[in-house]
Amino acid sequence: MRTAARRYQRAAHASGRNRSGRLGRVAIELTDAIQDYLKEIYKLGVDGGRVSTSALADRQQVSAASASEMVKKLAALGLVELVPYRGVSLTPDGERVAVEVIRHHRLLELYLAETLGIAVDDVHDEADRLEHVLSEELEERIDKALGYPTHDPHGDPIPDANLEWPE
C-alpha cells in the first residue's frame, strides 16, 4: 500500500496529452527527501510567507546549492512556487502533501508514546523514520485506536483525516 504522501498525481505536460488532446494525470513517487523538504517549507512558511532557500538549507542541514536544486525539482513537480530572489511557497498540492506528512509524524509520535511507552523525548526521531512509510490503512487504525486525537505528545496540533487543523 502506498500513502497519499508517497504518490502524487499531477497533470501531464503537453507531451503527455492523450489522443483526445486532454491532459492526463501522471503518478509521481515522492521520495523521503521531497516529503521532508515540503514539510520544512510548510513549517518555515506557516505564516503564509515565502521561505528563503538559505533558511531551508539551514533547516535541512544541507548546502544552499543542494537546497536550491531540490526547490527547482519541487517547482518542476508543481509542488512549490519559486520566485527568484524572493523565496519559495507551497502550491495547494505541495501543502496537501506536507500536511499529510505532518499528520503521519504527529500520530506516530503519540502512538509511540501512549501505546508503546516510548519516552516523549525519544519519539521524534522514530516518527521521522516511520512517517514516510505509514499506509493509509494503518494511519486510520492508529487514529481510531488513539480516539482521533487533536494534539501530539508535545502539544502540537494533529490535522484530522481530511487534513484540517483542529481549532
Task: Throw out a few tags for this protein.
167 residues; mainly alpha; Arc Repressor Mutant, subunit A; Diphtheria Toxin Repressor, domain 2; two-stranded antiparallel sheet; two-stranded antiparallel ribbon; 6 helices; 4 strands; 45% helix
Structure description:
The chain is mainly α and 167 residues long. Among the domains are: 31-90, Winged helix-like DNA-binding domain superfamily/Winged helix DNA-binding domain (Arc Repressor Mutant, subunit A); 94-145, Orthogonal Bundle (Diphtheria Toxin Repressor, domain 2). The chain is built from 6 helices and 4 strands, in the order ββαααββααα. The chain has helices at residues 32-44, 53-60, 64-76, 92-114, 123-130, 136-145; strands spanning 7-11, 25-29, 80-83, 87-90. The strands form 2 sheets. The protein has a two-stranded antiparallel sheet with strand order 1-2. The protein has a two-stranded antiparallel ribbon with strand order 3-4. The chain is elongated. Residues 9-25 have low confidence and may be disordered.
In brief:
The chain has six helices and four strands. The protein is mostly helical and 167 residues long.
What layout of secondary structure does this protein have?
Layout: E1 7-11, E2 25-29, H1 32-44, H2 53-60, H3 64-76, E3 80-83, E4 87-90, H4 92-114, H5 123-130, H6 136-145
- CATH topology tier name of the domain at 31-90: Arc Repressor Mutant, subunit A
**β-strand amount:** 5-15%
What CATH architecture of the domain at 31-90 would you give? Orthogonal Bundle
Rg for CA atoms: 17 Å
Per CATH, the class of the domain at 31-90 reads Mainly Alpha
Discrete helix count:
6
Strand order of the largest sheet: 1-2
What ranges have pLDDT less than 50 throughout 5 or more consecutive residues? 9-25
Strand element count: 4
For the report, how would you describe the main beta sheet? 2 strands, antiparallel
Overall structural class, as computed from helix and strand content, comes to mainly alpha
Euclidean distance between termini CA atoms:
31 Å
Relative helix content: 40-55%
Whole-number mean pLDDT:
86
